[in-house]
Amino acid sequence: MQKLYNFIFAALLSLSAIAQNQVNGRVVDEEGQGLPFVNISINQGKFGGTSDLDGYFSLSSKVAIERLDFSYIGFESKSLSGAELQAKELKVVLIEKSTTLGEVTVLPGENPAHRIVNNAVENKELNDPESLEEFSYVSYSKFFVTFDLDSVDPSIDTIRLSDRIDSLR
């Protein structure tokens, strides 16, 4: 009977350990719309995942999940830990964050591409290979020969034909 109690206790203990290592939920904005591809990290580590297109996520870990960090562009980051992770289905609400950028002043100036092209044109004579005493270059060319296989006489043996041509020389 003692073995039965030990087995039931071990089974319940393992189920509670498994429950701690799996978290399911949904990430939404303030209006309740699911947020796709929210970054979620487990225990401030390198493991985690992302939410799907509708904001749903399911994460599992080999170690107990003690903290989840949620981050999404344009929204404030949020962390959940302790009792907040005990719910069967988590609902994480991220708050939109607005950021004001500083003033940017664009001054007129010469486009760098125009400067490069103008310098090349100005130094055309200096860089002309025809005006140099000598120069070399590598050139690649391809020679293609095509013919219709239907026009070749199959009775011609090309190996013996080449032997005949060699004997005529």
Question: Could you give the topology of this structure?
Answer:
Blueprint (H helix, E strand, L loop, with lengths): L1 H19 L1 E7 L10 E4 L5 E3 L5 E5 L6 E5 L6 E4 L8 E4 L18 H11 L35 H11 L1
Parallel strand pairs: 1-7
Antiparallel strand pairs: 1-4, 2-3, 2-5, 5-6
N-to-C terminal Cα separation, in Å?
Answer: 106 Å
CATH topology of the domain at 2-93: Immunoglobulin-like
Count of DSSP H/I helices: 3
What's the number of extended β-strand segments? 7
Label the CATH architecture of the domain at 2-93: Sandwich
Q: Can you summarize the main beta sheet?
A: 4 strands, antiparallel
- CATH superfamily of the domain at 2-93, please? Carboxypeptidase-like, regulatory domain
The residue fraction in helices comes out at 10-25%
Low-confidence stretches: none
Q: What form results from the Cα inertia axes?
A: flat
Structural class of the secondary elements?
Answer: alpha+beta
Order of helices and strands: HEEEEEEEHH
